[in-house]
Amino acid sequence: MKKLVIACGLALSFNAFASGHWGYSGEEGPEHWAELSPEFSACHAQNQSPVNLTGAIKASMAPFKLSYKAGAKDMVNNGHTLQVDYAPGSFLEIDGIRFELKQFHFHTPSENLIEGQSFPMEIHFVHASEKGEITVLAVMVKEGKENPTLAALWKEMPKEGAQIDYQQSVNAQALLPKGRHYYRFNGSLTTPPCTEGVRWLVLKDPIAASKAQIASFEKTMGHPNSRPVQPINARDVLKD
Q1: Tens digits of residue pLDDT in 88-103
Q2: CA-to-CA distance for 110 and 180, rounded, in angstroms?
């Protein structure tokens, strides 16, 4: 068993999506992100996300603490995903640091892989500390029964550039599995500017959504919105 070595994250903006022209295919696709702007140079750095979670090392990792309450404020279609912005007051605690939930968003298919397995969808819950450090909690979504929380959130899906307001009746915790076992690695934002120093926690257990729900998201976006997996390089992937 390996003892967890805590790496300090960089101070980052909690907004995981840079402005500017970038996309998921062609000349603006992931393989060209670092060339599109000097601000995106980190996209060719060494500790990038997502990754294939394989060869994980059993480590002494304390459970992270979650305190989520209903707080979904609005959902924005920024052309890259559907992003649900969250009201203050919900947080994740790890390494003795409190990270407030700022937003969550969706990727299809999944960006991270678990032992080489891809899932139809992945949800990223983006948290920021008072110093601006980022922790992302990732949840895989498998095809199964209709998900009632997604049904409530996606009752109406905004077109690109549009926003839908909520009355904060949705609790993000309803989109988490019962199990809290997880993988951990140090990585980056999975979209430009690809800033590194991000704590990644990927839950081992998936949640379910119906085939129709996943297809509805895919239709709304009009394209896959997943970055290919990046090399692990010298990093360790840890598991509890």
Answers
A1: 999 999 999 999 999 9
A2: 19
CA angle in degrees (0–180, nearest 5) for 117-119-120: 150
Query: Which one-letter amino acid corresponds to residue 166?
Result: Y
With CA atoms as reference, report the closest residue to 135 among 232, 1, 10: 10
Positions marked active-site: 80
159: closest CA among 77, 43, 59? 77
Say which amino acid occupies 27. E
Which of 5, 189, 172 minimizes the C-alpha distance to 84? 172
Amino acid 138 reads A
Task: Give the burial class of 115: count Cβ atoms within 10 A of its Cβ; 0-12 exposed, 13-18 middle, 19 or more buried.
Answer: exposed
| Residue 127: its H or E element | strand 121-128
Question: In this structure, is the dihedral angle defined by the CA atoms of residues 148, 150, 153 and 157, taken in order, positive or negative?
Answer: negative
Which residue's entry shows tokens 């996309």?
A: 23
CA distance 51 to 113: 6
The predicted-structure confidence for 29-52, as pLDDT tens digits, reads as follows 999 999 999 999 999 999 999 999
CA distances from 79 to 17, 177, 213, 220 (A): 10, 28, 19, 10
| pTM to 2 decimal places | 0.92
Name every residue whose Cβ is closer than 8 Å to that of residue 117 and which is 6 or more positions away in sequence: none
Average pLDDT score over residue span 9-21 = 50
Chain Cα centroid distance, residue 5: 22
Single-letter amino acid code for the residue at 91: F
